[in-house]
Amino acid sequence: MSTKKENREEVPSEEREYHSPSSGIFFKLKKLLFKAKSDYQKIEVIENEYFGRVLLLDDLVQTSERDEFFYHEMLVHPALVAHPSSQNILVIGGGDGGALKEILRYPIKYACLVEIDPKVIDVSKEYFPWLSPSLEDERTELIIADGIEFIEKADKKFDIVFVDSSDPTGPSASLHERDFYEKLKKCLNLEGIVVSQAGSPFYHLESIKKKDAFLKKLFKNVCFYTSPVPTYPGGSWCFVFLSDEVQPLKIKRDPPRGLKYFNLDIHKAAFSLPNFLKDLGSN
Predict the structure, then answer these.
(1) Of 27, 44, 155, 276, which one is least surrounded by beta carbons within 10 A?
(2) What is the pLDDT of residues 121-144, one digit of tens each?
């Protein structure tokens, strides 16, 4: 599908994402590749001389060619090296395909990608080269659906669920609530793991505290960890590893070769938290 004809507006000289009323990140535009409104959100793809192609949803950076590996490797690999025998994987969100790309490095049997917005899939196929081969992999199933509705109707269980959502606004807002995680837990196998992005430990600390409080009532192991992501607010990002049976620091297998950031030393270090994140309930 070609989407280039939908670019009708005059090309701006830069793109900005505000992380607070007085700060943020900006990109000088080499080219505006795509801009349109889907049924759910504004979608843009820009080209920047340093970061390459950058995907934005509702003016928020989702991924860039230059730094995507930080986020996607750290979302995916901690759970996959900790799970003893993961075979069935679910990704909710993640329409850019970066998480799916990392999952398929492992000898799994099945990976299901559930994305609410088909336009994100179409645009990512055209502008981000890793998506199409991942969707064409015989182990992959793509389902266009709302994540919560899919979970409510799911008739199979998963070893690992990755919640690769955008910020808690618009179509992703419900993916950050307790009700969603309660439903997710019912879809896990005995040694199941849920991993979710949790936001910026600097800009979104109150949201992380709220999530920590209700997650500890649902899972025995609630383990936050962090990673650098240069184009995300504050340059550092927080994830949460959830399980009743699996401990994240008990490694079950080596990661695949060819990764740019993740290794077992990074894995252990990522779960070593700064003081303001160590005990969220007392902050």
Answers:
(1) 155
(2) 999 999 999 999 999 999 999 999
Structural domains in the chain?
Answer: 10-63 (2.30.140.10), 68-282 (3.40.50.150)
Catalytic residue among 164, 179, 244, 265: 164
Whole-prediction pTM = 0.91
CB 116 within 8 A of CB 267: no
Q: What is the pLDDT of residues 240-265, one digit of tens each?
A: 999 999 999 999 999 999 999 999 99
Could you confirm whether 96 is annotated as catalytic? no
